[in-house]
Design a protein that fits this description.
This protein is α+β, with helices and mostly antiparallel strands. The protein has one domain: Acyl-CoA thioesterase, double hotdog domain (Porin, Beta Barrel). Helices cover 18% and strands 37% of the residues. The chain has 6 helices and 12 strands. Strand 5 and strand 6 form a beta hairpin. Pfam families: 4HBT_3, Acyl_CoA_thio.
Length: 289
Amino acid sequence: MNGAVSALLSILDLERIEHNLYRGHSPQDGWQRVFGGQVIGQALVAASKTVDDGRQAHSLHAYFLRGGDPSVPIVYEVESIRDGRSFATRRVVAVQHGQPIFLMSASYHVDEQGLSHQIEMADVPPPESLATQRELLAASIDSLPPVVKVYFQRDRPIEVRPVEIDHYVSSTPLPPRQKVWIRVNGPLPDDPAIHRCALAYASDLTLLDTSLFAHGRRVFDPDLLLASLDHAMWFHRPFRADDWLLYDQDSPTVGGGRGFNRGLVFDRHGRLVASTAQEGVVRLNDGRD
């Protein structure tokens, strides 16, 4: 197992400090704020530790309230809202410096047999035929902010292989959609909960970026302020996050300083395994929170 995947599993391995109370840590990689996907993944780990009987998370709805401080631990308080015959509901509050920074509700369900259908996956090239995100950024790596440059040059736990590459090589406005293949860059344990938490972590990597394509902008533009406001996710079918997943994303609208984004996640066999939705701040940086 490579070091980046070991670091991801360490991030998702929360410390139990009391009943329904857990503590997580952040990687010390130079970022001023905690990565949103990390908080989603850790909160889902905390909630999952309080659910038994084989139930797995089928949905989560979360709000980012304040930027997380990577220099101190995050405490996750889990409240058991309901344990029914088929469903269980949990509420998680992430706390730092005595203040909530993140709020999430998650629902768990016993798998049942019944009706089934799904939309088809787009016809795209296989991931093995595509360049990695790091390779696509190589030509412009020296123009990126130093902390971003270091981030893309080090080993990362999630491998990203974009299907469309125009926004990496041009500032021309493009349709606000993108497809990327993603996977954890090494084997994970067989526990289905770990794979859900890992995908929750990865689901925040590229989603908000899609808001910028119609404007010919990039997430690294220094005059832009981007931040996730909320995040919703639904898990439809079992999957492995350490095998390739196609993340098909679009941004139906940007306006009023906010961008709205959606995503569908398919496994490489074309099964729809998860869906996402997110709204984020998309504004010119004027110093406001």
